[in-house]
Structure formats: C-alpha cells, structure tokens
Amino acid sequence: QVHLVESGGGLVQAGGSLRLSCAASGRTFSIYYMGWFRQAPGKEREFVAGIRWSRSTTYYGDSVKGRFTISRDNAKTTIYLQMNSLKPEDTAVYYCANDPTGTGYNYWGQGTQVTVSS
C-alpha cells in the first residue's frame, strides 16, 4: 500500500500561483502513474494531471493545459503541481493519487483545499 500526503493548498487571488506537493510512502516501488485530481462542490471528480513514473511522461486535463505543470522528485518520491494563472473555476479540493499497475488509481491522499478568489 502507498500512503499519500498532500500539502500546499490555500487561498490565492485570480492570476496567482500555488504549488502543491504530494509525498508518497510505503510501497513506493509500486508506482506506475501518479496524478492529481480535483473535485469542486457539486461537481464530479476531474483529472488534472498525471505522470508516468518510469518515463516521466506527463498528461494534463484540457482545462489546465498550459497553466499547470506536474513534476516529480524521485529521491523524495514526491510529486508537485505548479499551478499558474489560477482562475476562480480552479477552486476545488485537490487529491493526489497513485496507480500502482497502470490499471487505475487505487490510492488517494486526504486532499488539500485550493480557493481562488476573483
């Protein structure tokens, strides 16, 4: 099992930036993808960004392309989400997730709140 802990959320004005972190512990050798998802009140969970661990290939949801960047630190088994040009519609709880085998995200962090004011 992989344990995930997010940090870095907060309140920011529109146009600002935030950087989220997600530290993984436990069976960290079982990481195929790691990703970020978000869920706003009354909305379904949305894929934000993902990274294939072995190749560092990155993937983004359409709503964040060009504004958000996912990266990783192998030594720390940590991923980051750099969020620039934030918009009020980016307001959500952001979750880190691990897909250990390439078949689906099975492990989730507790989430961190991001609020963007207009």
| Structure classification | mainly beta
Radius of gyration using CA atoms only: 13 Å
Q: What's the total helix number?
A: 0
Q: H/E element string?
A: EEEEEEEEEEE
Distance between the amino and carboxyl termini = 39 Å
Mean pLDDT: 94
Percent range of helical residues: under 10%
Shape: globular
Overview features:
118 residues; mainly beta; 7-stranded mixed β-sheet; 4-stranded antiparallel β-sheet; globular
Describe this structure in words.
The chain has strands at 2-7, 10-13, 18-26, 33-39, 46-52, 57-60, 68-73, 78-83, 92-99, 107-108, 112-117. The chain is mainly beta. A hairpin with a 4-residue loop joins β5 and β6. The chain is globular, with a radius of gyration of 13 Å. It starts with a strand and ends with a strand.
